[in-house]
From TrEMBL:
It catalyses: ATP + protein L-histidine = ADP + protein N-phospho-L-histidine. Its EC number is 2.7.13.3. The chain crosses the membrane at residues 12-31, 43-61, 68-96, 102-120, 127-148. The keyword Membrane applies. It comes from Herbidospora galbida. The keyword Nucleus does not apply. CDD domains: HATPase_UhpB-NarQ-NarX-like. This is histidine kinase. It is an enzyme of class 2 (transferase).
Amino acid sequence: MDVSPRRPRDWIVDSLLFGFAVGFGLLTASMRVPTLHLLPHPALFYLDQVLAVAGCAAVWWRRRHPTGLAVIMVVVSAWSELIAGATIVALFNVAVHRPPRVTGGVFGLSVLSCVVFVVLRPDPADPGAAVFLLGSSIYGMATGWGMVIHHRRQLAASRRDREAQMATEVRLRAEQAQLQARETIAREMHDVLGHRLSLLSVHAGALEFRPDAPPEDVARAAKIIRESAHLALQDLRDVIGVLRAPVRELPQPTLAEVGRLTEESARAGMRVTLTEKVDGEVPGLTGRTGYRIVQEGLTNARKHAPGADVEVSVTGAPEAGLTIEVRNTRPSGEPAADRPGGQGLAGLAERVALAGGTLTHGGRPDGGWALTAWLPWPA
C-alpha cells in the first residue's frame, strides 16, 4: 500500500490515467447511444454511466489499494462496459505495483469477466467471439505493459542494491585493510622500539645499581643511552611518518643489517657472536622476517638472560631455506621482575607463519634458551 504524498510527477501520471479512463468511457458511451433501443430498459444505460463515473473517480485511489480496486472493477466490468477504461487502468496499476503471480490472477479474472459480459450483454451487431477477443486483448496489452514496467523497476532496484552492496564491500575492504595496516604498524613499533628501549633499560639499570662506577664507564653508558634514545626517536618518527602518509610503506630492514644489530648489542655490553653462511641474495620478505627474528632473540636475551653468552647463527641457500638460531647460555644474573614479556614471541610466531616458516623456542639442557626458525627460500 502506497500512502506516501504524491509528487508532481505522480499528479501528472494520475491525471493522465484519469483522463484516459474518462475518455474511454465517453467514447464507449457515444458508440452505445445509437443502440439504446436494444437494451431491455433504458435505465440500465444510466446505471452503467453511474458505475463508470464511480470507477473513474476510484482511479485516484489506485495507489492505496491496487489489488482490491482492480478486483472490484473487473467484477463490475462483467456487466458494465462503460467502466472498461477504469478497469484497464486498474489492471495496469496492479501489474506495475504487484508481483507477477498476483497480476496473473487478476488478469485471469478479467478474462473470465469478458466471457460473462458476452453472455450478459450480447450485441446483435457484433459477434460474441469478436467482443471477447477485443476485450481480453485490450486487458492483456494493459497488463503486459504494466508487467514490463514492473520488471524494469525491479531491475533498477536490483542494480541499486548491487551498487549499495558493492559500496559496502569496498568500505569493509578498506576498513579491513586499515585494520591490517594498524596491526602491521603495531607489530613494527614493537619490533623496532623494543630493541632500542631494552638497550636503554639495561644501561639505565647499570647506572642505577652502580652509582660508584668509574667515570669512563658512566660516560660510555650515558653515550649508549643517548644514541639508543636518538635511534628510537628516529624509528618512531619513521613509523609516525607512515601514519601521516598512507601511500608510503613502513621502513623495512634487510638481513644484511643483522651485523649492525649484533654490533649494537655488543656495544651495549652483551657478549654476542654472529655466524653467517648465506649463499645468494635473500628475498625481501624472508630477509625482513629473518632480521626481526634476530632482533627479537637479542632483545629477549638482553631482558631475560643478563650476563649470558649469546650466539646468533644465520645459514641458508635457495631451495634449502633460511635457518636462524639465537642461543644463550645460563644467565649469570637474575632478570628484572618488572620486565613483562611474551607478546614479542607471539607476534614473531605470527610473522613467521605469514612468511610460510616455522618457529620453535624453549630451554636448553645447560640452562640456557634457544630460539630457532626456518623460512622458505625459493630458488
